[in-house]
């Protein structure tokens, strides 16, 4: 969780949260990850998230798979969590971000939610990462045009560096995108040694509407 002056809610912020979660779980011994989400292009289905997966797969020698749920069938445990938090928030007045953190931690008694408080130093510019590490996003290795909006399953694996595997249908074989090759052009990128840039140097101004609400 974070509040409005710390970060926005775009692909860089969502990707930074995924990065922090994966780094933690790798430290605990996890080698394979499976994520499920809706099809929101601004937060989930975009080059920033996919380049982040490619980076982490090589950095940690892991496998990351992301499944996009069918439209109209995207309800997940996250929706249930939001409902629990919303009901709890109606019972007490809330005035500061810290109170929201406490509310979420205590909203579910049987199995409390774990809250990670994100600071501005935790958010990285993943749009810059995608720009620096992706040359090709238009054609697969068979020179077929890639339709990003139709991808159902995506996978980044240490076994295929700088490549993204994807499926349009859950039951078909994986297709492959070579991120570093476009036609006769190729770039050389060492993801294990790339330096990430931070998103924000200072606090984000809060809008007048938010400050008065």
Account of the 3D structure:
This is DUF7869 domain-containing protein. It comes from Acanthoscelides obtectus (Bean weevil). Residues 37-135 form the DUF7869 domain. The protein is an alpha+beta fold and 213 residues long. The protein has one domain. It is 31% helix and 14% strand. The chain has six helices and seven strands. It has helices spanning 11-27, 47-60, 77-89, 97-106, 126-133, 208-212; strands spanning 32-37, 63-68, 153-157, 163-167, 175-178, 181-182, 185-186. The strands form two sheets. Strands 1-2-3-4-5 form a five-stranded mixed β-sheet. Strands 6-7 form a two-stranded antiparallel ribbon. α1 packs parallel to α2 (47-60) and α2 packs across α5. The longest helix is centred in the N-terminal third of the chain and has 17 residues, at 11-27. The radius of gyration is 19 Å and the shape is globular. The model has no long low-confidence stretch (mean pLDDT 92).
Sheet-strand content, in percent, reads 5-15%
Derived from helix and strand composition plus strand pairing, the structural class reads: alpha+beta
Element string (H = helix, E = strand) = HEHEHHHEEEEEH
The strand line-up of the biggest sheet is 1-2-3-4-5
Which outline best applies? Answer: globular
Low-confidence stretches: none
- The helicity comes to 25-40%
């Amino acid at each position: 969780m974070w509040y409005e002056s710390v970060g926005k809610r775009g692909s860089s912020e969502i990707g930074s949260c995924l990065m922090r979660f994966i780094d933690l779980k790798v430290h605990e011994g996890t080698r394979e990850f499976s994520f499920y989400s809706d099809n929101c292009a601004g937060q989930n289905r975009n080059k920033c998230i996919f380049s982040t997966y490619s980076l982490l797969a090589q950095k940690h020698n892991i496998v990351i798979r992301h499944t996009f749920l069918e439209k109209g069938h995207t309800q997940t445990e996250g929706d249930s969590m939001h409902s629990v938090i919303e009901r709890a928030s109606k019972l007490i007045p809330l005035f500061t971000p810290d109170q929201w953190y406490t509310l979420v931690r205590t909203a579910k008694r049987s199995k409390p939610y774990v809250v990670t408080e994100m600071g501005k130093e935790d958010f990285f510019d993943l749009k810059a990462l995608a720009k620096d590490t992706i040359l090709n996003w238009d054609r697969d290795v068979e020179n077929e045009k890639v339709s990003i909006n139709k991808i159902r399953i995506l996978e980044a694996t240490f076994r295929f560096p700088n490549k993204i595997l994807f499926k349009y249908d859950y039951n078909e074989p994986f297709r492959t995108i070579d991120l570093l090759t476009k036609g006769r052009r190729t770039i050389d990128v060492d993801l294990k040694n790339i330096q990430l840039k931070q998103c924000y140097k200072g606090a984000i101004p809060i809008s007048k509407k938010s400050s008065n609400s």
